[in-house]
């Protein structure tokens, strides 16, 4: 298993009571609550954490992209990746954005990834996402065009990396007389492409068909296993067997001496982690963003009670416990869901830097060495279930 | 009671209700209440043959491939009027339907005798904000269309009925395609509204919270010799909330044009 250190870079000084009153930490939570002095400290602390991850032996570091939210302060992840690119010496640099449909010229993303891939001499992982529904409110892009724009932008970027320029790209949403980006990526034919999603079947199908790596966002491990099963089935339909390296699970880990202590310490930050997710459900699901079938499916799932920190732990959405418990649960999760990558947050919610650093070191010491060459053991799946 | 026909045009079947007798009055519905035959239509049917089509993409079926922008619907209804051989048409449109009607009239008004726009979308007045119809749950969005939230009860019950789920979800998708960005307007439209050369009536709900009354004034200014009537006690859908008054204003306006010509 490869273990990456994933940061969301939350605005940890967000006023949780105000988020409750506003009903959302996204789009409408006023940026008058943003204090740049505090924000500057957070950016530097968080970048320190990711630089440290490289030294500690994590296989990679991850940044991502969200807009107009206290949930994460990385609307332009390439800037953060650029700041990291000269510091991290061994680990991969995964950008689990960019949201392709949100830009009007996807070549800027091809260029950005290519620069990062050159600076790191080929350690970039190119994430392609659609962005969550709320982003179509904050960025003024038509959600009903999201799917088509995504596919077209992807085609443009990959062609720009693989087909000698200049050439013309004639799409419906992107139409360019000259496609000839300098520089080109360091990796040939191009950096690995990862497609993070919350489990959309159309994304799973598309990703499997392209033999990309699919990343599942935070979800109970049983759901993650079902989603990864679906990916493997789609790969089978495409005539190949999906490898564990095509599956990445996004989680959070917190370690303390005992299970009880770990739970006690993690709870407040799992609580605020949940609050950062809070958003207007209508804005989360703008018309046309998802197919009619998935909208109907989401409707039937409404009314489920919000998950408490203990739910998150008990359902295996996050892993919290003593070193031994964490190792057992991570191994069982890998055997159940069959993934090759763990994208692990060691800071979450409003957890302060000092605490995150201790947790990160614990994960590096107590987890990383034990999983270096570990592969999923499907025979143990039944036990894990 | 109106009769319902299915009409095929531009590769799509749409439902068209017709009732009453007199000169043809083509009513293009809004995006939220939709093509329901209302008291308003009964009132108009006393003087006109009211023709009420359901917009492509709004009846529960899939939207045709060509439906992407409001001008697509303007051309669609130009074709439909020709196909039905309608002449001297009184074209009336509400909200989204008003936007389509205005766009249509800038293109070709040869079949029109008059144009009535009820709280139409399509223009942008800088600095005048309104409620975002894409930001709330369905029931709230519907009630926001009304001055008196209780007046929305019947519409809420009909539009949100379980059997209408497909029509609602698919219709919202089409509305997003047409009106998400730029929100509820087309910056290209304003510069051609001066071409509209048929008698034009603008009806505005004084309590419209989506597009407040300054929008009505902007429309009146943009279309030569347009008349503006503001209805007290009505929100964004005066034809639903104040059907008798709204129909009365339209009937009077058309009658005056006949005297004048």
Notes on the protein architecture:
The complex is a heterodimer of chains A (385) and B (261). With 385 residues, chain A is of the alpha/beta class. Chain A has one domain (2-384): TIM Barrel. In chain A, 45% of the residues lie in helices and 14% in strands. Chain A has 16 helices and 11 strands. In chain A, the strands form 2 sheets. Chain A has an 8-stranded parallel beta barrel, surrounded by 7 helices. Chain A has a two-stranded antiparallel ribbon with strand order 5-6. In chain A, helix 4 (107-119) packs across helix 6. The longest helix of chain A is centred in the N-terminal third of the chain and has 21 residues, at 36-56. The model of chain A has no long low-confidence stretch (mean pLDDT 95). With 261 residues, chain B is of the alpha/beta class. Chain B has one domain (3-260): Rossmann fold (3-Layer(aba) Sandwich). Helix content of chain B is 36%, strand content 20%. Chain B is built from 9 helices and 8 strands. Chain B has helices at residues 39-45, 70-83, 96-107, 138-144, 153-159, 165-179, 214-222, 238-241, 243-260, and strands spanning 3-9, 12-19, 23-28, 48-53, 89-94, 112-118, 200-205, 227-231. In chain B, strand 5, helix 3 and strand 6 (112-118) form a beta-alpha-beta unit. Chain B is globular, with a radius of gyration of 17 Å. Chain B starts with a strand and ends with a helix. The A-B interface holds A 136-137, 140-145, 280-283, 286-288, 292, 295-296 and B 134-137, 165-166, 169-170, 172-177, 180-181.
